[in-house]
Specification:
Distance between the termini: 25 Å
Bound molecules: guanosine-5'-diphosphate, magnesium ion
Low-confidence stretches: none
CATH topology of the largest domain: Rossmann fold
CATH superfamily of the largest domain: P-loop containing nucleotide triphosphate hydrolases
Largest sheet: 7 strands, mixed
Order of helices and strands: HHHHHHEHEEEHEHEHEH
Mean pLDDT: 94
Shape: elongated
Number of strands: 7
Strand content: 5-15%
Radius of gyration: 30 Å
CATH architecture of the largest domain: 3-Layer(aba) Sandwich
CATH class of the largest domain: Alpha Beta
Length: 331
């Protein structure tokens, strides 16, 4: 999510006033002293308030509408920032913007109403406006700071495409999740921080019959029993429930990963229960495994796809089918 970062009040005002000065200076000088003073000072007021209000407006417009945001991102955003505090800060900015607009109108009107012998008053009126503008913006500093912190955090959210068919890769560490992701997507996955885990997500894309399918590898989350997770990690999994169209569960039948098959099977059961979507077991490392190891794994993981170095199954076609189903469903 790409949100703008606002300059602090001092810098914001410096820019606004500098622009105002420049724009007023660009106006052609009038012979008539009154007309000249009025025109230049009105321009100063217009230019400075335009700049500030536009900056505030773009903050308000860019910020995601929490009632419309995709449920996955909603959960992610809500766990990353304090929504109420943020909305309060935005509310203050919006209120300030309205006050600025009112003051701008009032001061311009005052200048317009000046009589011939009052020409020297135009500049003090503009200065008065500057004073009011300065104190309003300085008061916003706390809100600007709060908003900027939020914007920086939201910038770091993983770039996950919530509208694509999405398959999540699960399984104990070292079973070959990253390897399978690489085999399927044939490219380096993008890595992204995810608020709920210290480890980085891997995000990859697979093109099947012109359909783009998203694969997400979730180290540190879907690689150990859910029952042993803390509250935050559980939230991280809950967020994925909005996203997952299916789960690929990678199994290592050789024990090389260090987790016995029974443990792997019970994690598989837990994840199935948690997600309630199609769950595809993949018995990996078939090139290393003995016949017995594979047979045992096949009994525990029914209808599993068998994969390994130089051993490819129909896993890709299966993923394509799931992607197609989802794509048709969302038409
Ligand atoms: N022989 C063999 N080694 C594999 C296979 N898949 C993964 N590995 C190896 O197993 C280790 C763990 O794989 P990795 O993909 O990093 O597992 P992850 O922790 O689940 O992502 C690495 O050394 C891989 O090279 C496979 O199909 N055959
Ligand atoms: Mg990995």
């Amino acid at each position: 999510m790409n949100l703008i970062i606002l300059p602090r009040s001092k810098e914001l005002l410096d820019i606004a006033f500098r622009r105002a000065r420049k724009e007023a200076a660009m106006l052609k000088s009038e012979r008539n002293r009154l007309k000249d003073a009025k025109g230049k000072n009105i321009r100063r007021i217009e230019s400075s308030s335009n700049y500030i209000n536009k900056a505030i407006q773009s903050v308000l417009e860019d910020f995601p509408d929490m009632t419309k945001v995709n449920p996955f991102y909603k959960e992610l955003i809500e766990s990353t920032i304090d929504i109420n505090k943020t909305l309060k800060a935005l509310g203050q900015m919006s209120a300030t913007k309205k006050v600025i607009w009112k003051l701008r109108k009032q001061h311009i009107m005052k200048i317009k109403e000046l009589k011939k012998y009052e020409a020297q008053n135009a500049t003090p009126i503009a200065k008065q406006f500057y004073g009011r503008l300065s104190s309003l913006i300085k008061k916003l500093d706390k809100n600007i700071e709060a908003y900027n912190k939020v914007a920086k955090k939201l910038k770091e959210l993983p770039h996950i495409k919530a509208d694509l068919p999405t398959i999540i890769i699960a399984g104990y560490p070292n079973t070959g999740k990253s390897t399978i992701m690489g085999r399927l997507t044939k490219s380096q996955p993008k890595v992204a921080s995810y608020a709920f885990t210290t480890q980085k997500l891997g995000i990859g894309y697979l093109l099947h019959n012109y359909l783009k399918i998203q694969l997400i590898d979730t180290p540190g989350l879907l690689d150990r029993p859910i029952s042993k997770m803390n509250r935050i990690e559980k939230k991280g999994i809950a967020a994925f429930r909005h996203l997952a169209d299916a789960i690929i569960f990678v199994v290592d039948p050789t024990m090389e990963c260090g987790f016995p098959l029974e443990k792997q099977a019970s994690l598989f059961k837990e994840i199935k229960k948690e997600f309630k979507v199609e769950t595809i077991p993949v018995i990996n490392k078939a090139d290393l495994a003995t016949e017995e190891e594979i047979e045992k794994a096949k009994k525990l993981f029914e209808k599993a796809f068998i994969e390994g170095k130089e051993i490819e199954s129909d896993l890709k076609e299966e993923i394509g089918k799931i992607g197609k189903k989802k794509a048709l469903h969302s038409l």
